[in-house]
Design goal:
Layout lengths: L2 H11 L1 H55 L3 H28 L2 H30 L3 H58 L1 H32 L13 H35 L4 E6 L3 E2 L6 H6 L9 H6 L6 H14 L4 H7 L6 E5 L5 E12 L5 E10 L1 H24 L3 H24 L5 H20 L3 H18 L9 H25 L9 E2 L2 E2 L4 E3 H13 L5 H16 L3 E2 L1 H4 L1 H5 L1 H7 L6 E5 L3 E4 L3 H19 L3 H6 L7 E9 L2 E8 L4 E2 H10 L11 H5 L23 H10 L3 E6 L8 E2 L1 E8 L3 E3 L5 E2 L8 E3 L12
Helix pairs in contact: 1-2, 2-3, 2-5, 2-7, 3-4, 4-5, 5-6, 12-17, 12-18, 13-14, 13-16, 14-15, 15-16, 17-18, 22-26
């Protein structure tokens, strides 16, 4: 039963006695219910709509932020179209607020919000135009200086409107409370006048209407004061008051959702700003850093003390900037901030674009600086924005790429000169430089004869360099020659300075020696080209000139602003340079393997087959003598001791010719070279017996097979009882051990079967040497002919040279 029905029943029962009083009470009740309905269905929704405006504004701000930071022009245009839709939504919302406005203040605020909205979206449109025109820095400046300003102004108006709405709501609730209080008083008077009947009616009315409404009004005040939109009014019954409470609870729930959305959007925007991988700060009047800056700035300067600091001290302290330049930059703040943007344009050339800054631990960083003005609607500069990038690694990689390019160019120049002629050029240049140094030392004062001799010698070096196409050297020599020419003419003002002349000669000599090192060490040319080993010409690595040219082209066209591209080019060129002066294992061991037929014939055996599995590795030429000495002993031992006589192999079902296998690989930073054969293996009992005879072990000493096997590495150990031309002198494996250990390597014996305690054990000898002796061929077209074909260049490395690693 509704409240109206209950009151009607009571009035009918007491109609005869208190018809007039009951009618009056009914009228008061209806008036109160109408006032409540007005508050819950009109005033409160209007307040909710004003709160929604704030959330919509945050949505527009976030969309504008996305548009500014977006790099794709198509996406920028799409975001701009979305902003137009959001503008229409805001305008409709303001029109609704205008219809619901109460009083001159609310209508005026709505009108101000409409005007500010147009200016706000005009600023956003201007930002989008700059963005679509590719003017990203101006777009960002426009955004932070214009859009954000109008955003702040519009938010202030909307917030004021919300407060005015809330004040009006509070006034309406207060009026409702006054009306309810009046109704309560009237009912109380009627109840007293009507004695028991009216008292019963008043009590009923209080329980049915006044109590719930009072509780609802109190809850409204508490929620409005505390802004705790999680609270709800309890619904005890579904009458008019209950329906009003349900409506009120729904309204509070929507307010809670809108507030949550605003908080989330604000957090998203802050997260976006804090995670931009670029140092951004703004400079305010007084050359101070504004408290709002990107978090990445702290990583760039390696300090959290940023806000409020003098930007000159933060950015330029301990930098490579001179005192005059620092004074000019320090004056820029006063010259630009608070002035027309034209002042910034006039002084922009004074703003340094790159500095080198020394950090607290002594490291040096190269910082790229980009300056932008932040202006107001009158084109007055209110702040300066500085974007800072750490480009240290980029500059280092670019310098390394330039040095690699220079070395490749010098390699190309050297390869175009026959080795013999290049050697003559280097020797002649050294003689001329020695002569010039002697002349400078012997002449404290200038003489015409000394200057003429200096000039002739240097001119000869330059002429020969140009003749052979050694342009880097010729250009360097030209500067020194020019100085000598200036000394010949008094009007040039050049003076005879022994120290300066010696420094110039030292610079030229350093470049000559670098050419010589590349020729003899990196390329391994010079006299080594004509060397032979046991009557054989050295096999040397040949690299297609195309790779040198391609490497130069990559270095010339590399994007020095792209870190990943610089690293890739550097690694590719380094790999090309590392392969210079290397040889295959087959070629290194060719003198040894070619001698095996004669060795086998001396032993009455068939020449063995030698299989070398290099797994894509080559070795530096300087390691060739070591590997030849080591494997000469190992392979000869395998033929002599490991491989059986033909009749024994036939009886065992083996091929007449034995097989020797060498496998290369890199593991645990060591080059592993494992040698094995298909012979009968190691004679364990014989090795133990000889160990006892040579007092290497005792008769009763218990040893594992591995310990017995290692006896063959002891000095003077040999299983041959007779001395022949092949073996039996006891200088085999211990010599191998000595060769290897002198190169910081080691030797291991590994069984390839599981026959512990057997008379014969199959095994392999593993030689481990430093990994630096080997290079992995990684996708580079190389070949190893004795004499290179047309378009190829022979690049040997002498055995006594130190490898040149790029």
């Amino acid at each position: 039963m509704t409240i109206r029905a209950r009151i009607t029943l009571l009035v009918l029962l007491t109609f005869l006695a208190i018809a007039g009083i009951g009618g009056y009470a009914m009228q008061q009740s209806r008036t109160s219910a109408t006032a409540v309905k007005s508050v819950t269905e009109s005033v409160m929704p209007s307040v909710l709509a004003s709160s929604d405006l704030m959330g919509q504004l945050k949505d527009v701000q976030l969309a504008a932020m996305v548009m500014v930071t977006e790099s794709d022009d198509q996406l920028v245009a799409q975001e701009n179209e979305k902003l137009a839709e959001k503008k229409a939504i805001l305008q409709r919302a303001l029109e609704g607020q205008a219809k619901q406005a109460e009083g001159v203040a609310q209508r005026g605020l709505v009108q101000q919000a409409s005007d500010s909205l147009d200016e706000y979206f005009n600023a956003i449109d201007a930002t989008a135009k700059f963005k679509l025109a590719g003017k990203n820095e101006i777009a960002q400046a426009q955004f932070f200086g214009g859009v954000m300003q109008y955003q702040s102004e519009l938010e202030g108006i909307v917030n004021t409107l919300r407060i005015e709405k809330s004040r009006f709501k509070d006034a309406a609730i207060s009026s409702l409370n006054d009306r309810l209080a009046s109704t309560t008083t009237t009912i109380t008077i009627v109840t007293v006048a009507a004695v028991l009947l009216l008292a019963a009616i008043g009590l009923l009315l209080y329980r049915q209407i006044t109590g719930p409404i009072s509780r609802m009004a109190g809850m409204m005040r508490e929620i409005a004061t505390s802004q705790d939109f999680t609270r709800r009014l309890p619904v005890q019954r579904m009458d008019e008051v209950g329906q009003s409470i349900v409506a009120f609870n729904g309204m509070v729930e929507k307010i809670e959702e809108a507030s949550g959305q605003v908080r989330q959007k604000t957090a998203d925007m802050q997260a976006m700003l804090q995670n931009i991988p670029q140092g951004i700060l703004t400079i305010v009047d007084g050359n101070r850093v504004h408290p709002e800056y990107s978090a990445f700035l702290e990583s760039v300067f390696e300090t959290s003390d940023v806000a409020g600091r003098d930007f000159m001290e933060l950015v330029f302290a301990d930098s490579s900037l001179g005192a005059d330049a620092m004074a000019q930059i320090a004056a820029l703040g006063g010259a630009c901030i608070g002035e027309d943007v034209m002042n910034f344009t006039f002084n922009e050339h004074l703003m340094v674009g790159e500095i080198e800054k020394r950090m607290a631990d002594g490291r040096r960083k190269v910082l790229d600086l980009a300056w932008s003005p932040i202006t107001d609607e009158n084109d007055m500069v209110i702040r300066l924005m500085l974007c800072v990038r750490d480009v240290t690694e980029l500059r280092q990689l670019a310098a390394e790429a330039n040095e690699q390019k220079r070395e490749l160019e010098m390699i190309g120049e050297i390869l175009a000169v026959p080795a013999a002629k290049f050697g003559e050029f280097i020797a002649g240049s050294r003689r001329f430089l020695d002569d010039n140094e002697q002349i400078v030392h012997q002449n404290p004062e200038a003489t015409a004869f000394a200057i003429a001799k200096l000039f002739r010698n240097m001119h000869t070096i330059k002429g020969n360099g140009r003749t052979y196409g050694l342009l880097h050297l010729a250009n360097a020599v030209h500067d020194t020659e020019q100085y000598y020419d200036d000394l010949r003419h008094a009007h040039t003002g050049a003076v005879w300075d022994q120290q300066h002349l010696l420094r110039q000669l030292a610079q030229v000599r350093e470049l000559v020696e670098r050419y010589a090192r590349i020729d003899q060490v990196t390329l391994g040319r010079g006299v080594a080209v004509a060397e032979t080993v046991e009557g054989r010409t050295r096999h040397t690595l040949t690299v297609d000139r195309r790779h040198i040219q391609e490497s130069l082209q990559r270095l010339e066209h590399v994007n020095t602003a792209n870190l990943h591209e610089l690293v890739a080019v550097r690694n590719a060129v380094r790999q090309t340079l590392r392969l210079l002066g290397t040889e295959t294992m087959q070629q290194v061991l060719a003198p040894v393997t070619d001698s095996l037929p004669q060795l086998a014939a001396d032993l009455g055996k068939s020449a063995p087959q030698v299989e070398i599995e290099d797994n894509g590795y080559v070795v530096h030429g300087y390691a060739a003598p070591l590997l030849q000495n080591v494997f000469m002993h190992l392979i000869r031992n395998a033929v002599d001791h490991g491989l059986e006589q033909p009749e024994e192999r036939a009886a065992a079902g083996k091929a007449d010719a034995g097989a020797i296998r060498i496998e290369m690989g890199v593991m645990d930073d060591m080059l592993h070279l494992a040698l094995s054969d298909d012979g009968r293996g190691l004679a364990m009992q014989q090795v133990r017996r000889i160990g006892i005879e040579k007092n290497l072990i005792t008769v009763d000493q218990a040893l594992t097979d591995a310990e017995i096997a290692r006896l063959i590495l002891q000095p003077g150990f040999s299983t041959r009882s007779e001395v022949s031309e092949v073996s039996g002198r006891g200088v085999g494996m211990d010599a191998v051990v000595d060769f290897v250990t002198r190169e910081q390597g080691r030797i291991e014996l590994r069984f390839t079967d599981h026959a512990e305690g057997a008379a014969w054990r199959n095994f392999q000898i593993v030689v481990m040497l430093p990994q630096s002796m080997a290079v992995e061929v990684d996708g580079i077209d190389v070949s190893y002919p004795v004499g290179g074909p047309e378009g190829m260049d022979e690049l040997p490395l002498p055995s006594d040279a130190t490898p040149q690693v790029a």
